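Example 3.2
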Amino acid sequence: MFVHEASELGSGGIKDFFPRYKEKMQKANAAYWLCPMGQTDGTPIVPLGLKGNLMGRLFCRPGEWGGPVGNEIHALNCNWIGNPAERIVEAIAHLQARLEEIYQKGEGWTPSEAEEELCRKLADRMDPERMKRSLGVERFRQDDFHAAVRSHLFKAEFTLTGLQAGFIGEGKSVKVSIPSEAQAVVNMRFQPGEDPDERIGNVRNILAEGGYGDVEFVVNNHYAGGGTPLEHPLIECFLKAHADMGADPEVWPVHPAGMPVALWTEELGVPWIGGLPCNAMRKHAANEYAQVAGVLQSEKFLAHFFEGFSKLTY
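Structure, written as tokens:
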């Protein structure tokens, strides 16, 4: 078994490591992502697959569409001169609307009936109020919780994580100008099995079809997700280890966490599984934590899992 934790390609660590040790890793019977995944009440989460991930930037610069060329200009010109800040926001809104339309019409990646059933079971057993407290939010985007869970699992994600344009001071420190450039930092996540290059091309096509072909989409890094079917002996062994400890884990057909699972499932051809019965929250934010009780529980779980794994044949 190959045990790994690194989940990002931005640092370049996996890119250097993988080709160097690929031949050695191909001798493994499985890949295991050693990551705390549990609800705040201790319920373990077992992800059958993880989404692919992409980090990039959108740039809106002046050109034939309009905007001040070479330098910012006074805001009094806003009624007859285009604003890159406004345009990039409009482009992102158009992109989000089209992705929602693709999801609602089922035009893109669609889950299997088995995945849909797992999603329904998951939504039925989850407590929406506890989830909101855990996440630190007042409400979900969707009024229907089942629809919220389904979107969380099966919808392609395009998230605006940062936006920059012009001068932003504090209080009365302002600058009355139309900026000459605007940029947005974005994160995109797509389903296991989807080709990142195709999804990148899809985003550019959506922008062009909406009249925003001038908005440049620069990709910093990307990777494909992947997973292992529920009926695979590795998954059965993993779930049995939880059952042996008296746990009833949540089985997620797809988890929104991004990790290059395809490196193992596609390039190495080995099954993949991930997760530890430990709650860890506030990822990528201040005061990220893991519960001590969950860490101790994970040690016991690993003993059960590795014992069962040593007896597997497939």
